[in-house]
Write a structure and sequence with these properties.
Blueprint (H helix, E strand, L loop, with lengths): L14 E5 L2 H11 L1 E7 L6 E6 L2 E6 L5 H13 L5 E10 L9 E9 L5 H4 L10 H13 L4 E8 L8 H9 L4 E3 L2 H11 L2 E11 L8 H20 L1
Parallel strand pairs: 1-4, 1-5, 5-9, 6-7, 7-8
Antiparallel strand pairs: 2-3, 3-4, 5-8, 6-9
Helix pairs in contact: 2-6, 4-7
Bound molecules: hypoxanthine.
The site of hypoxanthine (HPA) has 10 residues, from strand 5, strand 8 and strand 9.
Length: 234
């Protein structure tokens, strides 16, 4: 047990999928895994471990934002030995050629700041995905017929943004989408020598102001789970 995860030693798999929402973790585990068991419910943050095609997998909520993700990713890696961490989440599209429901694979994650700022200080570290996972995810996305974009995302600190000029700069620099967790996941993966990737679906569009109806979010989420599992075990 750790401060935030009630699992016994050995109850967390080396491969962990990280949706933001704990109820999504429960849905994904019950939909995709064989014999899922609940291994965490501390503070209502649910985690489940089961098997997929014979491989052990944990699906654990990360919460929203980098400070929350940092708590779970640190404990999963340092205390439970997680070696592959795949975030599955939503993002806002930042380019005209990207549509609702499209999949964005975050090759890099830019930010204004991350919880690692205190370590990097004056360094501008470039958080990036694990290449092998990224390559596998491109193949997996093609296999399920998803429209997939690979490139940089922007990991923002706030959802209710008072600085639209920051989004404009990201858009001008070709950033594909905005979300709130990938950069610190990649920082932590680099620090601890483990693999990480963020698989995102577009739930809203910053340029067209379209948004995905809630009934469509579940199926997009299912596609991400499939891509994440296939990428992890290819
Ligand atoms: N901003 C930040 N995070 C998000 C967004 C957004 O527009 N959409 C989905 N996650």
């Amino acid at each position: 047990m750790t401060i935030h995860i009630g699992a016994e030693p050995g109850q967390i798999a080396e491969t962990v999928l990280l949706p933001g929402d704990p109820l999504r973790a429960e849905w994904a585990a019950k939909t995709f895994l064989e014999n899922p068991i609940c291994v965490n419910r501390v503070r209502g943050m649910l985690g489940f471990t089961g098997t997929w095609n014979g491989h052990r997998v944990t699906i654990h909520g990360s919460g929203m934002g980098m400070p929350s993700l940092s708590i779970y990713a640190n404990e999963l890696i340092r205390d439970y030995g997680a070696k592959t961490l795949v975030r599955i989440g939503s993002c806002g599209a930042m380019q005209q050629n990207i549509g609702l429901r499209d999949v964005i694979l975050a090759m890099t994650a830019s930010s204004l700041s991350t919880p690692s700022l205190g370590i990097f200080r004056e360094l501008n570290f470039a958080p990036c995905a694990n290449f092998n996972l990224l390559q596998n995810a491109v193949t997996a996305a093609k296999n399920i017929g998803a429209t997939c974009h690979v490139g940089g995302v922007y990991s923002a600190d706030v959802f209710y943004d008072e600085r639209p000029d920051l989004n404009d700069i990201m858009i001008r620099h070709g950033i594909l989408g905005v979300e709130m967790e990938a950069a610190e996941l990649y920082n932590l993966a680099a620090r601890h020598g483990v693999r990480a990737l963020a698989v995102l679906t577009v739930s809203d569009h910053l340029l067209t102001h379209e948004a995905l109806p809630s009934e469509d979010r579940q199926s997009s989420f299912g596609d991400m789970v499939q891509i994440a599992l296939e990428a992890a075990f290819a």
